[in-house]
Amino acid sequence: MSKKTVVVGLSGGVDSSVAALLLKQQGWNVIGLFMKNWEDDDTEEYCSSRQDLIDVMSVADRIGIDVEVVNFAAEYRERVFAEFLREYQAGRTPNPDILCNSEIKFKAFLDHALKLGAEKIATGHYAGVREFNGEFQLLKAEDGTKDQSYFLYRLNQAQLSKTLFPLADLYKRDVRKMAEAADLHVAAKKDSTGICFIGERPFKDFLSRYLPPKKGEIRRLDDGKVLGEHDGLMYHTLGQRKGLQIGGVKEKGLPGGGEHDAWFVAGKDMEKNVLYVVQGHDHPALLRSDLLAEQLSWVSSKAPHTHWVYTAKPRYRTADQPCEIEHVDGETCEIRFAEPQWALTPGQSVVLYESRVCLGGGIIR
Questions:
Q1: Would strands 127-132 and 216-220 be described as parallel, antiparallel, or unpaired?
Q2: Other CB atoms closer than 10 Å to residue 341's CB: what's the count?
Q3: In the predicted model, is pLDDT for residue 256 greater than 90?
Q4: CATH of the domain at 239
Q5: Average pLDDT of 255-281?
Q6: What CATH number does residue 325 fall under?
Q7: For the segment 107-145, what is each residue's pLDDT rounded down to a tens digit?
Q8: What is the pLDDT of residues 7-26, one digit of tens each?
Q9: Structural domain total, the chain
Q10: Quick one: 121 and 260 in the same domain?
Q11: Residue 10's closest CA among 260, 137, 186?
Q12: Fewer CB atoms < 10 Å away: N or C end of the chain?
């Protein structure tokens, strides 16, 4: 075979469709792969996989590539969903999309693609990869508003060496224009939101199917006063404001905001099944300058230097925050921020950067 083969993960969205289109234009032998990762309630209104597959087939037909459909539901349930439930049960707030990337899209999918004889795999992620000084680096995308390197920080050298990100240097608006110019009907398709297996359905309903909810007290952190009742600690995350259903006037002498300021989740006591809240966005209990990260994953073969100025994202939608690594012991690392950070959430990932290069990260403990 003269042409090199690349297997592109097609989701039915505009990004992966254009990724496949660009690779075909560059002369690759492109095979599309549609992954079915969830089948528990496929018949419900919230599951879009059937429509997504129709869109994939239509795009493939237009571009002129073959598509294979692969069911990874068993791997997904075992490697991603089981961990997702364990984390919620332990009172943390996990990010299953990160686990899905490292365990399914760049492991199960990659293994399958290599068996098909592919040299590379590709996805429609907004991120970049380059070889530098004999190592592969994961880079931020050109389009900073769409950059997805945060979700890919667990990728290792072996995975990156086999991966292409055709959208690395493109802006979303241009991707849509390219799809339109190529007459791909997904050009204006809305981006999917929410967790891969939950889709747009109400999160609370979904979680209660798998984990039995247990009601308990909502207490004020400052003085332990009972303010109400929660439906289950698993439904609440640090910094959460909506859905607490407690009102009340601020009492004098307690830190936080003004009289009618909103309430925020500030902590959970799993043993006593108590949810602790504070009043006011800038309550001291919601601010921290340091964190401990575990389950570390470094893109390079070695950990970053300690006492070196980096930036970090303690959650996806935050601006990069200046920080330094105070200590790494293989299993955990301590990160100190230049400015106090708001609502550092156990279970979420903290991802480190040096300029545009994603170094890796870990789970906030």
A1: unpaired
A2: 21
A3: no
A4: 2.30.30.280
A5: 88
A6: 2.40.30.10
A7: 999 999 999 999 999 999 999 999 999 999 999 999 999
A8: 999 999 999 999 999 999 99
A9: 3
A10: no
A11: 186
A12: N
The pLDDT of residue 1 = 43
Q: HSE (CB half, 13 Å, CA atoms) of 363?
A: 16
| 148 shares its domain with 35 | yes
Instruction: Say yes or no: 235 and 176 in one domain.
Output: no
Q: Indicate if the pLDDT at residue 196 is higher than 70.
A: no
If asked whether residues 50 and 195 sit together in one domain, one would say yes
Same domain? For 91 and 135 the reply is yes
Q: Could you say which DSSP state residue 168 is in?
A: T
**Same domain? 159 vs 194:** yes
Global pTM reads 0.93
Q: Mark which of 282, 300, 325 sits at the end of a domain.
A: 282
> If residue 224 lies in a helix (H) or strand (E), which one and from where to where?
none
Q: Name the burial class of residue 246, with classes exposed (0-12), middle (13-18) and buried (19+) by CB atoms within 10 angstroms of its CB.
A: middle
Cα–Cα dist 7/35, whole Å = 12
Say what the alpha-carbon torsion angle 115, 120, 19, 64 is, to the nearest 10 degrees: -50
Residue 250 has pLDDT above 90, yes or no: no
255 lies in which domain range?
213-282
Residues annotated as catalytic are: 100, 196
pLDDT for res 82: 96
Rounded alpha-carbon distances, angstroms, from residue 268 to 31, 185, 216, 232, 277: 48, 47, 11, 11, 9
Which residue among 140, 172, 203 closes a domain?
203
Are 102 and 49 within one domain? yes
Tokens representing residue 364 in the block? 């906030």
2 Cβ contact partners less than 8 Å away, ≥ 6 residues apart:
none
pLDDT over 70 percentage in the chain: 92
